[in-house]
Write a structure and sequence with these properties.
The chain is 41% helix and 20% strand. By secondary structure, the protein is α/β, with parallel strands linked by helices. It has a domain at 18-31 and 89-136 and 147-226: HAD superfamily/HAD-like (Rossmann fold). It has an eight-stranded mixed beta sheet, sandwiched between helices. Strand 2 (106-114), helix 6 and strand 3 form a beta-alpha-beta unit.
Length: 229
């Protein structure tokens, strides 16, 4: 079977191994895509046409989010309130976070979503100590949002945000475990040592006979990580 792994497989529990878990947010930590939920409620314009362009590969994720969120006409407080009221956290996430901390694994959320709602949601469930790298968001006086993606070395990016972090973590000597659900996770997952997949990412792996561990909840991720001894 063809695998994702860029190097030989070793137990993530070996004393000389630095393990990092890179986890997506929308559709992975959460049951739904929070950014889409906010766009459905607050965008004044056909943002889904821009989504079709992105899904067809005609525009980058950076351009999609820039154009889609420029259509939003709401203040930060309204968007945060809507996000907190509408979000559903995938079962077992708190257990998963506790497991990573107990084992000494560095857990980092890397997302194409927007930093402000990710941090607010994590804070709301008592997990605001998790590292988060996502689209930097600023609110304009007219209610629109400006978004920027910044790479690990400080450059502005328009695409491949998640994979840029995987590459950086590999250069730092980490064994990277990737947890994701969508098309934007394909490249990042392909550069990681171990992959936990659900949704579109899982379908992608199965269609291409790529090695991964499927999951529906984070309890399954924890049990899968235990199997990597």
């Amino acid at each position: 079977m063809k695998t994702y792994y860029p190097a030989e497989r070793k137990s993530i529990f070996m004393a000389d191994i630095k393990t990092l878990v890179q986890c997506d947010f929308d559709g992975t930590v959460t049951e739904e895509d929070v950014s889409f939920m906010l766009l459905d409620s607050y965008a004044r314009g056909d943002w889904r046409e821009r989504l079709k362009e992105y899904e067809a590969g005609r525009i980058t994720v950076g351009r999609f989010n820039t154009e889609a969120f420029s259509m939003v006409k709401a203040d930060r407080a309204s968007l945060v309130k809507a996000a907190l009221e509408g979000v559903r956290i995938r079962e077992g996430f708190e257990e998963f976070v506790a497991y990573c901390r107990r084992k000494g694994f560095r857990l980092v959320i890397i997302s194409n979503g927007l930093d402000f709602y990710i941090k607010e949601i994590l804070s709301d469930i008592g997990l605001d100590g998790i590292e988060v790298f996502a689209a930097l968001t600023s609110f304009r006086p007219d209610g629109g949002l400006d978004v920027r993606y910044i790479s690990p070395d400080g450059r502005c990016l328009d695409d491949n945000f998640k994979s840029s972090y995987v590459s950086s973590f590999l250069e730092e000597g980490y064994r990277v475990i990737y947890v994701g659900n969508g098309a934007s996770d394909f490249l990042a997952a392909s550069r990681s040592h171990h992959v936990f997949a659900t949704g579109t990412l899982l379908s992608h792996c199965r269609e291409r006979n790529l090695d991964c561990i499927p999951f529906d909840d984070f309890g399954e991720v924890v049990r899968g990580m235990e199997s990597l001894r």
